[in-house]
Structure formats: C-alpha cells, structure tokens
Amino acid sequence: MIRIALLVAGKDLRIERRSRVLLWQVLPFGVTGLLLSGLALGPTQAGHSSAAPGLFYLVMLLVALLMINRSQVIEGSTGTKTSIATLGLDPAGVFLGKALALAVELWLTGAVLLAGSVLFLHTALSGTLSALPSVAVTLGALGAAGSLYGALSGGGQGPATLLPMLSLPAFAPLLIAGERSFSAALRHGSIWRWWVISLVALVAYLALGILLYGVLEES
Q1: Mind listing the pLDDT tens digit for each residue in 184-203?
Q2: What is the mean pLDDT of residues 54-81?
Q3: Which residues does 73 contact at the CB level (< 8 Å), separation at least 6?
Q4: Are 56 and 114 in contact (CB under 8 A)?
Q5: 88 versus 145: which is more confidently predicted?
Q6: Which of 35, 66, 81, 88 is the 20 to 30 Å CA partner of 47?
Q7: How many Cβ atoms from other residues are within 10 Å of residue 35's Cβ?
Q8: Per-residue pLDDT reduced to its tens digit, 78-100
C-alpha cells in the first residue's frame, strides 16, 4: 500500500511540475487573494487586526478547492481509471498517494502564503513561524479530507458547485482549529489544544479514506 501511495503521489507531482498549473495559476491566485485581503483591511488595521489568520485560511480554502478539483479530474480521466483497474492497484494506496500529493502542494502554497501574510497582512514573523507546525497539520488534514470529498463529488465530473457544498461542512472544523492555533501563536499563547484537534481530524480522514475510497471510486 505504501509503495502504491508513493507511486501515485509521484505521478501527480510530476504532472503538476510539467504542467506548472500550480506555479502559474494557483499560486498567483492565492497571492492575489491575500493581497486583496490586505487592501481590504487597510493600512491602519494591517498588523493590528485579529482577522489575519482567518483571511489566510480563507484564501487557502479557495486555493485548496482548485487543487482538489484538478487532482480529481486527473484521476477521473478514462485512461487513468482504466490503468488502475488493469493494474489492480489497491484503492487505499491510491487514496494515500492522492492525499500525499495534495498535501505537498498545499504545504508549498501555504509556505508562500504565510510569507505573503507577513508582507501583506503584517503578521509577526516570530508568531507566524511558531504557527508552522499547526499549519502543516491542518493543511495535511485538508489534503486528506479533500481527496476523500473529491472522490465523493464525482471526481470533478459533477457540477462545479458540488465539491464546495459537500466539503465545506467537513472543512469548517479544520479551518476553525487552524485559525485559532494561528491566532494563539501570534499572541504567543498555547496552540496545542487546537493543534490536537487538527491532528485527530487528520488521522480520522486518513482512516475514512483508506476504508471508503475504493467504494467511492466504483460508484
């Protein structure tokens, strides 16, 4: 299962490296969203408002929805489905590979947008660095949940609004926990309570994906 996961993750990441969609489309979209958020706060509120962590995660959510849809479109193509069926790949390994590739893309984008939050929203650099572990876990959980709900929404073949409608109730606790831990880090408070919530969510979504991904792909 682990070998299959690494193969699937490597395949997805190579596709993104060659297409450069992440570099030339997704990242500019995220940076623009963060810049507009900074402009909406205004110069007097930037650096003093408690809204910065929430704005960071809001932009990350929009970026994640784009990534999830693209990931599932790649996996939902006829050639890919036929190859998986012919090779008899373990669905659990496929899910873990999709989740890992999506998490890596979210981590890379998150690193850029965290730097953007320091530049555009004037979040404290020390607090932002302290929030890195919780951000990494939250984005990893978002990747696992996104892979699961992407398959549930029909692999990108359904209506464009189906994925957000299905996934937002599941993403909401992750975004709240991530925002609270980021805010606590900026205040130099304890982030562990919210960090643990994100960690439990990560484990839960990985377990659900391993159990259900094959069923969702066949439906």
Answers
A1: 888 877 777 888 888 999 99
A2: 79
A3: 155, 156
A4: yes
A5: 145
A6: 66
A7: 15
A8: 545 545 554 556 788 889 999 99
Contact 15, 105 (CB under 8 A): no
pLDDT number for residue 19: 83
State whether residue 43 is helix, strand or coil.
Answer: coil
Distance CA 201, CA 93 (A): 19
Instruction: Please give the Cα distance from 91 to 158 (Å, whole number).
Output: 21
Torsion angle of the four alpha carbons 82, 208, 59, 29, in this order, in degrees rounded to the nearest 10: -10
What's the pTM? 0.87
User: Cα separation of 84 and 35, whole Å?
Assistant: 41
- Which of 23, 37, 30 lies closest to 64, judged by CA? 30
Q: How far apart are CA 199 and CA 215, in angstroms?
A: 25
